[in-house]
Amino acid sequence: MSDRINPDTLYNSVQWGFSHAAVSEPGRLLHLAGQVAWDKDCQLVGGDDLNAQARQCLANLKAVLADQGLGPQHLIRLRTYVVNHTPEKLEPVGMALGEFWGEVTPAPNTWLGVQSLALPEFLVEIEGTAVLP
């Protein structure tokens, strides 16, 4: 059995059929659902701005981590999904990732170009795995 994580600071993901994260045993891994550019009220942040959307995705990841007393340094894996990826999209998402990591050495990240995400307004989605102390 695993614990489901749904911080009050984020939108109600359960109504959409998923939790923001789950803790698995043994090993105490925190599996973070892919985060999109929604705020707490399910309002899109960033519009057509890929960098702004990526920053909101990462802010949502940080909120889930913070809810569990963790930070980016606890992440051991990211996956970044970018709609209709082209090399030009590396810079805006990469800049957001650089801000997110700050002084922390980045965890491995797999970058995937996808045709679409759950809703047409989503340009990027980022998921992660963290280790609980």
From TrEMBL:
Q: Which superkingdom, per the lineage?
A: Bacteria
Looking up PANTHER family in the UniProt record yields:
BLR7761 PROTEIN, YJGH FAMILY PROTEIN
Name of the protein: Putative endoribonuclease L-PSP
- Species, as recorded: Roseibium album
The organism's taxonomy opens as: Bacteria, Pseudomonadati, Pseudomonadota, Alphaproteobacteria, Hyphomicrobiales
